[in-house]
Amino acid sequence: MFANTVFNAVRNGVQKFFCKKNFTTVPSSSPSCPLKQHMEVDGKCALVVDGTSGVGHAFADELLKMNAAKVIITGLNGMKGAETACEFNKIYGQGRVDFYQTDVGNNYEIKNMFKYIKNNFEALDVFFNNAETHEGGVDDMIATNFNSKIHGIILATKNMKEGSVIVNHTSAIGLNPNSDMIAHSAASTGFLVASMAFSKNKYFKNTNIRMTTLCSELFPSTFVGGTVPPITCDCQEAQRNMEISIAKSATYLVKHGSNNTLWLCQQTGILSIVELQKIVEYTEKYEPRIIIDDQ
C-alpha cells in the first residue's frame, strides 16, 4: 500500500512534464528534423544490452547488416546467449559477435561487464542501453528499468571514446500519466528525465559522447498515441515487426540522432521526435498548520 502511494506520487509529479498536453511529436521525415549524419556504423564496435532476444536481438542484427566490426550482446541465460552469438556468426562471419553473461539488475556485474569489454576489445563506439523488464515486483522493476540504466550511462561514458553514441531505450509508458502499471511507469518516467539530464550536463561537455533517448510502444499497455488499433495478424508476428521497427529507429538515432533529443517509436512504426514543453505555471497549496497541545 505504502509503495503504491509513493510510486503514484513520483509518477504524477514527474510526469507533469510528459502528459499529453505537454509534449508534441514531429515526424522524423519532417523538415524540422534534418538528416545530419553523425556516425557510420561500418567498422564500429557496439555493446547491446539484452541482445539475445526481442528489441536487443533485432538491433544487433541491424548493426551487423550495416557492417559493424564487433557486436557484444548481453543476457542472463548463458546457453541462449552462446547459441545466439553462434547463429549471428554463422550468418555474418566468425568473430563478429561475442556474448557476455550478466544480470543487469546487479550493479557489480554491470561493472565487471565493462571491465571485460575494456580488457578484451577496443573502446566502444555504440552503447544500446536496453535493459527492460515487465515482470517481477517493485524492486526488480526499479533495479532493472531505472538503476541499471543509470549505472550503464555512468560506466559507458568512462569506457567510450569521444564521438561515440549512447542510445537509451525505455518504454513509452513513461509518457503516459494515466497508466495503472505504477512501478513500470515510475521507472520509465524517471529514466527519461535522468537520460535527458545526463545528455545536456557535464557528461556531454566532458566526454563529447552523444546521447539520445528512444521510448517505444512495444506492448499495448504502453501505447500513448490514442486507442489501441486492432491486431490483424498473429500476435507474435505483430510483436516481432514492432521489435524490428524499434531496432531500425535505434540505428537511425545512431547515425542521425542529435545529442539531448527524445524520440518516440509508435506501434505504427512511425518515429517522431518528442518536444517537451516546460511547466510555466503552478499553484502552491498549503495545508493549515496543526499545533498539538501535549497537555
TrEMBL record:
Keyword Secreted carried by entry: no
Family to which the UniProt record says this protein belongs: Belongs to the short-chain dehydrogenases/reductases (SDR) family.
Function field: Catalyzes the NAD-dependent dehydrogenation (oxidation) of a broad array of hydroxylated polyunsaturated fatty acids (mainly eicosanoids and docosanoids, including prostaglandins, lipoxins and resolvins), yielding their corresponding keto (oxo) metabolites. Decreases the levels of the pro-proliferative prostaglandins such as prostaglandin E2 (whose activity is increased in cancer because of an increase in the expression of cyclooxygenase 2) and generates oxo-fatty acid products that can profoundly influence cell function by abrogating pro-inflammatory cytokine expression.
Name this protein carries in UniProt: 15-hydroxyprostaglandin dehydrogenase [NAD(+)]
Record key words, sorted: Oxidoreductase
Catalytic activity, reaction form: (15S)-hydroxy-(5Z,8Z,11Z,13E)-eicosatetraenoate + NAD(+) = 15-oxo-(5Z,8Z,11Z,13E)-eicosatetraenoate + NADH + H(+); resolvin E1 + NAD(+) = 18-oxo-resolvin E1 + NADH + H(+); resolvin D1 + NAD(+) = 17-oxoresolvin D1 + NADH + H(+); resolvin D1 + NAD(+) = 8-oxoresolvin D1 + NADH + H(+)
Organism per entry: Aphis gossypii (Cotton aphid)
CC annotations in GO: cytoplasm
Coiled coil: none
Pfam assignment, any one: adh_short
PANTHER family hit by this protein: 15-HYDROXYPROSTAGLANDIN DEHYDROGENASE [NAD(+)]
One MF term in the entry's GO annotations: 15-hydroxyicosatetraenoate dehydrogenase activity
TM region(s), chain numbering: none
Keyword presence, Oxidoreductase: yes
Enzyme Commission code: 1.1.1.141, 1.1.1.232
